[in-house]
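R.M. (postdoc): so does anyone remember the format we settled on? I'll just put the structure tokens first.
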């Protein structure tokens, strides 16, 4: 049973009787499913520093990104799912993600590199020279998606092809159509409203000698051990406060 369902079925009914405000529990730290998207053919490929954002929001994150057989994963995606957990839940996990394959590059920067290469090395085949050390398979995929034949030289790139390639490098659009199954979910977002818990003791502000810790609280973080630490710290505070 997913963690948020355990809270909803086994814990929330009891807490509700205590008249505490409960933030509905929902999944956090999950990966994005992209069924039918050809990018899944690159499964196992990782990009060291990508930037991914959710269209229509200010939610974004950067870092390593991994392409899997079901979609995209990796630290950048997991952390973005934590920041966007409630928004994605409201969207029923249907959204548009936009990826820049090199976080240090702007749209103008990508275009300048391509045009510079076209001017300096017009006879070189595009597929043989991945820009900014992008993985070969990703580069070949992106030029194909841009309508560029594998035998095309840089010198023969049209303005339209360059524009398409820049768009796929800087803002590759990925349609999210779901998240991973519960076995892949690490954390639950939601639980008892933190405003109703003494942060120094973890004691209920309404009921003396009732203490809370860990997942039962509306407290979740990104990957990197923060959720373990939150559980240990709140548990330690609650334990010490009972004496």
């Amino acid at each position: 049973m997913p963690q948020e369902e355990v809270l909803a079925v086994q814990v929330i009914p009891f807490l509700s009787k205590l008249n505490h405000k409960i933030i509905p529990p929902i999944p956090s730290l999950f990966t994005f499913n992209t069924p039918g998207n050809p990018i899944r053919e690159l499964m196992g490929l990782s990009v060291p520093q990508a930037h991914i954002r959710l269209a229509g929001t200010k939610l974004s994150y950067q870092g390593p990104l991994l392409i899997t057989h079901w979609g995209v994963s990796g630290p950048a995606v997991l952390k973005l799912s934590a920041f966007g957990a409630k928004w994605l839940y409201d969207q029923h996990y249907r959204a548009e993600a936009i990826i820049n394959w090199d976080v240090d590059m702007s749209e103008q920067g990508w275009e300048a590199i391509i045009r510079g290469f076209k001017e300096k090395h017009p006879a070189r085949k595009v597929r043989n020279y991945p820009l900014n050390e992008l993985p070969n398979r990703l580069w070949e995929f992106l030029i194909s998606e841009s309508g560029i034949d594998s035998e095309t030289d840089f010198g023969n790139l049209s303005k339209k092809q360059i524009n398409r390639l820049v768009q796929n490098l800087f803002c590759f659009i990925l349609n999210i159509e779901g998240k991973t199954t519960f076995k892949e979910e690490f954390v639950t977002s939601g639980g008892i409203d933190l405003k109703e818990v003494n942060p120094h003791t973890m004691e209920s502000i309404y009921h003396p000698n009732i203490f809370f810790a860990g997942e039962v609280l509306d407290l979740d973080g990104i990957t990197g051990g923060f959720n373990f630490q939150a559980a240990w710290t709140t548990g330690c505070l609650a334990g010490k406060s009972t004496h």
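R.M.: ...and that's the designed sequence above, right after the tokens. Also worth knowing: The first helix runs from residue 3 to 16. The domain at 107-170 is CATH 1.10.8.50 (Helicase, Ruva Protein; domain 3).
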